[in-house]
């Protein structure tokens, strides 16, 4: 957008570094309303993107054409009864994970895992393969068993094992590129309680214990601070203890999973995250540590290490491989380009796959090289939306339409 552009910025992401002034920003008041907007935009040859909670660092949401805000349409639609270990709930796609915690708990259900924060919409989270930490815990996308979405004709269609089943592999992690998701059916577990603990250790003490600790705890992660070579280690485990209110600081919480898993992230930052094979993750960390100590010795922000179970979601960063995710952060007012470019070289040496919602510099060929189902995914997506109505500029470059 030039400084003379008469339009004003009408959307920005959480960190404020991705902004756009679309021709139309439409806040949908009903699914029928959104269907009409999509049909009319597609008829005019305009692109349509949906904004979730804006927590992606990558330029996924922005479009110059039509931006849909579905955030007024939230809540739990219903659940299937009769599952011994949890159940399948139908959730309005734009509901935030935070807003789902309590209603699901009242139904006796919970997400098997969540990310570091709970501000994301469920549609946004599954669009990018959002995950938490846990050796045996998959991403939220892997829990999707069905969706409803608006296609480019404005029709509402269902995708699950019996309706349009061929699209399920594309839809579970969809980059917002298949249509406007209105409902998500997710496999959930019985509600459970957790307690967390936090400690600080030198990296030298932590390093030899990482694999063992990841095995010992339901959730294990750490934030390593390169300048001080120390790590904040966080573990979370099942408990039978009664929830303690008011909920305390991180490291002293006992409560339901949705009360203990999320953290606060008040400081605006940008972030690069790569998934690397679990059994090479410590070597990758060592290489990253050498790089940061040598070339970025004043970096204040931490490197985060988490684990993620293998899955069969086509564009998942954990597709058919046990995974560790490693993230590099930088304050939003500080220079990040050189830092991220140098870290990306290290991640790529370890066959890394970038998080879809975080900063990366890979193009189509490089992404195809690390995602075995890349061309299958695009072939089905392009058949479903041949005019690219649901692609923004960045995604159009990958589509090959
Ligand atoms: C502070 C912070 C902490 C984070 N922690 C984690 C973490 O622990 N683990 C992790 O994996 N990631 C994490 N992320 C990344 C974040 O989870 C993802 O970027 C996620 O996609 C954000 O969800 P959102 O609702 O904000 O979606 P947005 O960023 O708004 O959108 C993401 C994508 O979803 C699409 N979309 C949204 N709604 C719809 C819809 N209804 N229909 C179709 N497409 C839709 C958008 O078009 C876009 O393509 C974090 C990000 C931040 C800023």
Q: What does this molecule look like?
A:
Helix 8 (281-295) runs antiparallel to helix 9 (337-349). The model has no long low-confidence stretch (mean pLDDT 96). By secondary structure, this protein is α+β, with helices and mostly antiparallel strands. The protein folds into two domains: 76-191, Uridine Diphospho-n-acetylenolpyruvylglucosamine Reductase, domain 3, CATH 3.30.465.10; 193-364, Vanillyl-alcohol Oxidase, Chain A, domain 3. The radius of gyration is 21 Å and the shape is globular. The strands form four sheets. The chain has an eight-stranded antiparallel beta sheet. Strands 6, 7, 8, 9, 10 and 11 form a six-stranded antiparallel beta sheet that branches. A three-stranded parallel beta sheet has the order 3-5-4. It has twelve helices and 19 strands.
Descriptors for this entry?
alpha+beta; 26% strand; 19 strands; 8-stranded antiparallel beta sheet; 25% helix; single chain; Uridine Diphospho-n-acetylenolpyruvylglucosamine Reductase, domain 3; 2 domains; 401 residues; Vanillyl-alcohol Oxidase, Chain A, domain 3; binds flavin-adenine dinucleotide
Layout: helices, strands, pairs:
Layout: E1 11-12, E2 19-20, E3 24-27, H1 31-43, E4 48-51, E5 66-69, E6 76-79, E7 87-92, H2 97-106, E8 109-110, H3 122-127, E9 144-150, E10 156-160, H4 168-171, E11 180-190, E12 193-202, H5 203-206, H6 210-216, E13 219-225, E14 230-238, E15 254-256, H7 257-260, E16 269-277, H8 281-295, E17 303-308, E18 323-331, H9 337-349, E19 353-354, H10 364-370, H11 374-384, H12 393-399
Parallel strand pairs: 3-5, 4-5
Antiparallel strand pairs: 1-2, 6-7, 7-11, 8-11, 9-10, 9-11, 12-14, 12-15, 13-14, 13-17, 16-18, 16-19, 17-18
The structure holds flavin-adenine dinucleotide (FAD).
